[in-house]
Amino acid sequence: MSERITKTVAYLANSLTTLGVLESSCNRDESYLGKVINIELATIESSSGAKAVAITYEAVDPFDSGINLGHLSLKAYSNTAEENLLKVQFLQARCTPVLPGGNPDTNSSRAKAYIQNDTVKFLIFREEAGI
């Protein structure tokens, strides 16, 4: 049994101008670090106490995992109706939830990120290979 290797990257809120910037960063970093397994709001321990988003990646074999690395889709929502509509759209496009659970009924792949000074709620799904 191989040992699980994870790495966590902190993305500073003041460098994230849009959710799209975070999406691009995650897609880039998946190709180097592995699949996204956790997303948390964080505060950097410093005199400024800067806000950040901490994302944990788990190393996987890109050729043997069956995971379409670097093809994440992050979509913001502000209420339950928007969230439900986005879930339906993702599932119709045959995307899969990224965060633990893997089942949209038990885990909606919800996360939060600091974008500049705002907390943004979003869904994170993985596009199917070939889309």
Write the layout of secondary structure elements.
Blueprint: E1 6-12, H1 19-33, E2 35-43, E3 51-58, E4 72-76, H2 80-92, E5 96-97, E6 110-115, E7 118-126
Antiparallel strand pairs: 1-3, 2-3, 4-7, 5-7, 6-7
| Secondary structure tally, helices | 2
Written as H for each helix and E for each strand, in order along the chain, the element string is EHEEEHEEE
End-to-end CA span: 33 Å
Radius of gyration: 15 Å
Low-pLDDT segments: 101-106
Assembly type of the chains comes to single chain
> Average pLDDT, to the nearest integer?
86
Structural class computed from helices and strand pairing:
alpha+beta
How would a crystallographer describe the biggest sheet? 4 strands, antiparallel
Describe it.
There is one protein chain. This protein has 131 residues and is α+β, with helices and mostly antiparallel strands. Helix content is 21%, strand content 35%. It contains 2 helices and 7 strands; from the N terminus they run βαβββαβββ. Strands 4, 5, 6 and 7 form a 4-stranded antiparallel beta sheet that branches. It has a 3-stranded antiparallel beta sheet with strand order 1-3-2. A hairpin with a 7-residue loop joins strand 2 and strand 3. The longest helix has 15 residues. It is flat, with a radius of gyration of 15 Å. The N and C termini lie far apart (33 Å). About 5% of the residues have low confidence.
